Each structure stands twice: as structure tokens, then as C-alpha cells.
């Protein structure tokens, strides 16, 4: 209940002010020619996105090197938005312009799938990264007897670095009942230790110069355990699967047992708490992309969706939920929703300023990750599969 209140407070705090970014509702994707990352006919041998610990040490180093490269690069787009000063921050800025429409709506999974693909492409094309996007299966590091801080992703040499410096003032304001915290300040080690960003948290557009911080929430690993993934995989349709993965709040959805932030999506964000709020821990939904762990978490969510899709053809081509949402108004009254059901033909659009046609597709173009054409003739613009996660065998 307390977690629930904390999350509500953090959401409601968004609702309190001023001007903003873009629009949807007025989205007019340019779909006059086939958008594509790959020619699906070339997708005969899809690469495998692997779990972090399935990468060799040189592969891990090459990945984090490429992330640092994006951070050190001048922005090639969205440079007109306040606070965009590196190519890495263009991703956060783009996420921030669309946060209300791509969370707690039917676009959540398809939009983030395309977003991850654009990030992967940038690592490869702009920074010479040789591999594909990895994921972090935190269920391996969660549960009785486990200590999440020992997860290989937090390794200072071969990972993303660990917790932030201890911020006493911050942690004194967090109720003791939600857990004990050891971080909250700037990262102490790892390849991203010196990252600073100017993008303001929340929906505001102003300069806000800050280091990258983390406040690992060990107690929240009760929501990154395997049972949270298991319940997603048994859902009978896209709507229920999304609700169990992201959280309810969709029109017509039922509350989940235990409260509405008890999902693996919230679990991952709150556990590593990259770039937390001042008082409330857990990542800021608008700018959580600033912590490179965002991609490891969201790629794992994409993998869970993929695992669910692999079960049968009905799942593979399943879409649904509405564009509006009961949670919508908490993003701020200025955000208006498109009141329509998501279908194969619904546009998924990372905005024209962010990659043009390449980033403007329809949901049906994103359902198969490995080049399969949808029943309505829409071609897949993706080409990858996932490795089998190195989870311990279960009895
Ligand atoms: Cu997001």
C-alpha cells in the first residue's frame, strides 16, 4: 500500500504544471513508402539478442564503449529541444516528448520495441558496435538468498557500474518502511561514472545540469522475481498480457492483486532506480532513459512479450488496448488522447524529427521480430530473435 502511495504521489506530482512538448492525435506518419530497417527477405538468419551474462567480456566492453561513444557525440537530431546536448540525450528527449502516449496505452510494447531498435541501430551505425542489443534478466538475481547488487550488470569493470554515492539528505526523506538505501547520488564507478545530463526530469523543458545517479532499491526485488514473468506468459490475450507486464490503469482493466505497481515493468525501474526523483525513489518515467540500464530492462520486457508471442500464432499477431487510458490525466491535463482502439494499422511513430520514415511504421510491421509478414500483408521491419535466458532450471 505504501509503495502504491509513493508511486501515486510521484505520478500526481507531474500534474502540477506548465507547457509541454508534442502532440499526438495529430500524428500524420509519412507512410507513402515502405519503411524499413531491413529488407525482410534478408532476414534468413536473425541475430540473437542475448542476456548480459551470455556475452563474452570483450562483447560487454564493446557494448559499453559504444554507449559512451553516443554520449560523446554531438546530437544529430532534436538539437532544438532544451537540454539536448549529446546523441545519447536525443533518445531521452524523444521519449520525453511522447511519454504520456506510450505508457499505459496499447502502444507501450510496440513503441518501445521500435525505440530499442533505433538505439541498437545507432550503436551499430554511429559507434561501430559489432553485436546486437542485450537484455538483463533480473529474475536470475532476485529472490530469497539473492543480492541484486551482485548482478553482473552492476560490475564496475565489465558492466554498467553499481550504486550511486550515498545521499543522506535524500534517503532521510524516504520512509524507512519501504527499505534501506545505500545510494542516491552520482555513480561511483563504471564506464558511465562521469555522465552528466542537462535534460530536466519530469515533463518540464528547462536546463537542469545533473550527474547520472542511482539508488538501488533492494527490497523492491520482490517485483523482479520469476513469478512476475510467469503470470505474464500465461495470459490469454494481448490486453491482459500488457496489463500484467506494465500495470493496470487501462480503460476497463481490473486492479492487480497487491496494488497496481506490482508489475515487472515497475519492478525493474524501481530496483535500479536510475536517475531517481529527489524524494521518491524509482526512475522518473519521462527521463529514465538517461540511465543506460533502461535499455537492458526494456529489452527484457520486449523479450517477455516475444516469449509470449512465440506460444502460438494468435499471440504473435495479437494487438489491442486503447490509446486513451484511465491513468492518462495524471500526466497532466494538457495531454489529450486519441480515443481509439489499437489495431494492426495504428501508427507507431518515434516522431518525424527522430529518424524520419524509418521510425514511422504501423503496429503490424513490428509484431514479428524476425521478418515474418503479418496476415494483413504488412512486412516486418525487424530482424532478431532472443536467446534462451540462462535462468536456473526449474523443478
Ligand atoms: Cu518508456
UniProtKB/TrEMBL annotation:
Keywords: Copper, Metal-binding, Signal. Residues 1-17 form the signal peptide. Gene3D superfamilies: Di-copper center containing domain from catechol oxidase (1.10.1280.10). Residues 291-302 form the Tyrosinase copper-binding domain. The keyword Metal-binding applies. GO terms for molecular function: metal ion binding; oxidoreductase activity. It comes from the Eukaryota. This is Di-copper centre-containing protein. It comes from Ascobolus immersus RN42.
Amino acid at each position: 500500500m505504501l509503495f502504491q502511495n509513493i508511486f501515486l504521489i510521484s505520478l500526481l506530482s507531474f500534474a502540477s504544471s506548465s507547457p509541454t512538448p508534442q502532440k499526438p492525435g495529430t500524428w500524420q506518419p509519412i507512410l507513402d513508402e515502405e519503411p524499413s530497417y531491413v529488407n525482410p527477405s534478408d532476414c534468413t538468419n536473425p541475430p540473437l539478442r542475448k542476456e548480459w551474462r551470455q556475452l563474452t567480456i570483450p562483447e560487454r566492453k564493446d557494448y559499453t564503449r559504444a554507449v559512451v561513444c553516443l554520449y560523446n557525440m554531438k546530437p544529430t537530431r532534436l538539437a532544438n529541444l532544451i537540454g539536448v546536448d549529446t546523441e545519447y540525450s536525443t533518445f531521452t528527449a524523444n521519449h520525453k516528448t511522447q511519454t504520456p502516449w506510450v505508457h499505459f496505452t496499447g502502444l507501450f510494447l510496440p513503441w518501445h520495441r521500435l525505440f530499442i531498435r533505433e538505439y541498437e541501430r545507432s550503436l551499430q551505425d554511429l559507434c561501430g558496435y559489432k553485436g546486437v542489443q542485450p537484455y538483463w534478466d533480473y529474475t536470475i538475481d532476485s529472490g530469497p538468498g539473492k543480492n541484486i547488487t551482485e548482478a553482473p550488470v552492476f560490475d564496475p569493470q565489465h558492466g554498467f557500474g553499481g550504486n550511486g554515492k550515498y545521499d543522506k539528505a535524500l534517503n532521510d526523506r524516504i520512509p524507512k518502511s519501504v527499505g534501506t538505501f545505500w545510494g542516491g547520488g552520482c555513480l561511483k564507478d563504471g564506464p558511465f561514472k562521469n555522465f552528466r545530463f542537462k535534460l530536466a526530469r519530469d515533463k518540464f523543458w528547462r536546463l537542469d545540469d545533473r550527474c547520472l545517479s542511482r539508488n538501488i532499491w533492494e527490497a523492491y526485488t520482490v517485483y523482479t522475481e520469476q513469478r512476475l514473468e510467469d503470470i505474464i506468459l500465461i495470459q490469454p490475450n494481448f490486453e491482459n498480457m500488457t496489463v500484467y507486464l506494465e500495470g493496470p490503469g487501462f480503460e476497463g482493466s481490473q486492479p492487480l492483486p497487491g496494488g497496481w505497481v506490482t508489475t515487472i515493468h515497475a519492478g525493474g525501474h524501481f530496483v535500479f532506480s536510475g536517475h531517481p526523483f529527489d524524494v521518491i525513489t524509482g526512475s522518473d518515467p519521462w527521463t529514465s532513459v538517461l540511465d543506460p540500464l533502461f535499455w537492458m530492462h526494456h529489452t527484457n520486457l520486449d523479450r517477455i512479450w516475444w516469449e509470449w508471442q512465440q506460444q502460438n500464432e494468435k499471440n504473435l499477431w495479437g494487438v489491442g488496448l486503447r490509446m486513451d487510458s484511465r491513468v492518462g490525466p495524471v500526466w497532466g491535463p494538457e495531454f489529450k488522447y486519441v480515443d481509439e482502439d489499437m489495431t494492426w494499422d495504428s501508427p507507431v511513430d518515434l516522431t518525424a524529427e527522430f529518424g524520419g520514415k524509418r521510425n514511422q511504421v504501423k503496429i503490424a510491421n513490428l509484431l514479428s521480430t524476425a521478418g515474418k509478414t503479418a496476415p494483413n500483408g504488412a512486412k516486418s521491419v525487424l530482424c532478431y530473435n532472443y536467446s534462451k535466458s540462462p535462468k536456473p532450471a526449474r523443478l
